[in-house]
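re: ur question from yesterday

yeah so i grabbed the chain u mentioned. its 316 aa long if i counted rite. heres the sequnce exactly as i have it in my notes:
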Amino acid sequence: MKIVMLDSCTLGEGLDFSIFEPLGEFVRYEKTAYGEISSRVFDADVIITNKCKLNAETLAGAESVKLICLAATGYDNVDLNFCREKGIGVANVVGYSTDSVAQVTVGIALELLMHLRQYDAFVREGKYSESGVANRLIPTYFELSGKTWGIVGYGNIGRKVGEIAKAFGCNVIVNKREKIEGVECVSLDELFKRADIISVHTPLTDATRGLIGAELIEKMKKNSVLVNTARGAVTDEKAVADAVKSGKLFGFGTDVYSLEPFGEEHPFYEIKDFDNVFMTPHMAWGAFEARERCMAEIVENILAFSDGIMRNRVEK
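ran it thru and got these structure tokens back, copy pasting raw so excuse formatting
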């Protein structure tokens, strides 16, 4: 069995890729450009990728491919219809990044409410030493306790964020299609009207693309914060940028973008230096422990496939 990993650089440093070697012939590429995919997978039995696009064009001639293993939960980079037609299995990894993404989500929200970057800079730049004053309370920061935290999408990550928010003393409200016992479920409109902090954890689908736009943002309370660690395209990014520039949003934080990395033409490029904006480079999923779990899950997916077991399969 030949296993080809196309973009190991997206999994970060410090990982032991030798865990794949006992499974068969293992070939690893740091990066693979779109035009290089076909030539690198034409004789592969298993493809491992995080971000490479696998479709009729890039898989043309790859007649031996039997399984695609995604180093991610999302599978929008794979043409599932094509894989079904060709009998190619597609397996993702689930649950591996729950703690990591939840931790970063709350961290971003805390930064937007507490402005720790500015306080740190005040000391780091020597201004505190020069001030002659024992403390500094500008800019004003706020407690989480007593705030209402609205969660859009209540899967594993949303649920974990809710637990952490409650530990801080927040009242948690949730938008989810099915009602959940013990959780206050509300409409999107009500959630955006009531919440002081809103975090987004819903997957990107045709139904959720552009879900959070100008109309919903306009309903948000004064001094409210929006955090997106789901997918960039779940929000109308121009509407979000406009809300930041107009002062409608007290704070905005995101780890995800419709184009990654985004360029100067992207709406967020204009707001990246705003004090009330905190943006990270799609890293929320990638705590070291989460990346180790991701790798281990891929191994288990390959072993299951070899044994004829359906595990984490998404093409069916």
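noticed a couple things. The first helix runs from residue 37 to 41. also The CA atoms of residues 47 and 68 lie 5 Å apart.
anyway ttyl
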